[in-house]
Amino acid sequence: MMRLPKFTYRAPQTISDAVRMIADAGPEGMFVAGGTDLYPNMKRRQQTPRMVISVMRLREMHTITGDEKSGITLGAGVLLTEICENKSIQAFYPVVAQAAKLISTPLLRNMGTIGGNLLLDTRCNYYDQNYEWRKGINFCMKKDGDVCWVAPGSPKCWAVQSSDLAPVMVALGAHLKFVSVDGDRIVEADKLYNNDGINYLNKRPNEMLTEIYLPPMNGKLATYHKLRRRGSFDFPVLGVAAAIEMAADGTIEKARIVMGGVAPAPIEVSDAETVLTGQPFDSDRIAAAAEACYIKARPLDNTDFVMGWRKQMARPFTIQALKELWLQSRKAS
């Protein structure tokens, strides 16, 4: 049985108390929400904070406010189940509810939060093992070692970003609010993630994610498609988030295509967006966008399935996502 290491647990009642605690704790402290990622990592000794600061009692982080016209603000502590079941999100941001429902199992969605999913630790076949297994290969670059076993000659870690909501937030242009003793900071979702398995977040150590702002959809169509071995529980080995804005003349005014599960950060495929923007929404454009995603996808031996097959799947999953949006656009017109 893997056991948690010893640590001090704190449960602040306000955001200001929480950020003061993490500032005092320094590198020995970490925030925890539902704990569905952190506690297993602690059992495997991947992360060993001496102080764990829970954010689950912070009422300000459990609210959903706003409307269709002004946009919706989600507290970072809102449970994934609440995201799935909230009527406003279902009505105005169905892609967010759709992606949240694909995360893990109902039990873990009852514990996990939107903030926790967006800040999910990167994953890898060589990293997500117990301490003794990792010690047997002399550890890896991400924790205690100096070699990335995915690509031994690489100067960086290739652990994968496996959040289902991260590609969706990038595609929708979401903004995230971080709070610390030094003040507040707003970060655009596409600026939050770094393409590095170790330094995967543009987040300061003493900052806490408190809010996620979803801008008004204004007729935007969006969807998310996920590849995984089992129909529930598993992390994505490929995710495709697509968002389309249609012009009055039936052409595509703006497009964002974002892949997850293939790199340390969500990958926005600008070439796919270029072949769609300003063009009619037809099978030729969809095929061209899918080809651009196939070219951009460069999965390595860091998650489930054969990496070459995962690359091949970028085409059909992009086609599926865009065909779904094409049908939605036809109904809307």
CA(first)-CA(last) distance: 58 Å
Q: Note the quaternary state here.
A: single chain
Order of helices and strands: EHEHEEEHHHHHHHEEHEEEEEHHHH
As a percent range, the share of strand residues is: 15-25%
Kindly name the structural category. alpha+beta
- Major sheet: order of its strands? 4-5-8-6-7
Number-wise, the strands total 12
What is the architecture of the domain at 59-119 and 160-214 at the second tier of CATH?
Answer: 2-Layer Sandwich
Helix content: 25-40%
CATH topology of the domain at 59-119 and 160-214: Uridine Diphospho-n-acetylenolpyruvylglucosamine Reductase, domain 3
Look at the structure and give the mean pLDDT.
Answer: 96
Unreliable parts:
none
Shape, please?
Answer: globular
Give the CATH class of the domain at 59-119 and 160-214.
Answer: Alpha Beta
Q: Sheet bearing the most strands, described? A: 5 strands, antiparallel
Can you give a write-up of this model?
The structure is a single chain. This protein has 333 residues and is α+β, with helices and mostly antiparallel strands. Among the domains are: 59-119 and 160-214, Uridine Diphospho-n-acetylenolpyruvylglucosamine Reductase, domain 3, CATH 3.30.465.10; 221-332, 2-Layer Sandwich (Enolase-like, domain 1), CATH 3.30.390.50. 33% of the residues lie in helices and 20% in strands. It has helices spanning 15-25, 38-43, 80-85, 87-92, 94-101, 106-109, 114-118, 131-136, 165-172, 189-192, 270-276, 283-296, 307-312, 314-332, and strands spanning 8-10, 29-32, 51-54, 64-67, 71-75, 175-180, 183-188, 208-214, 221-227, 238-246, 252-260, 267-268. The strands form three sheets. The protein has a five-stranded antiparallel β-sheet. It is globular, with a radius of gyration of 20 Å. The model has no long low-confidence stretch (mean pLDDT 96).
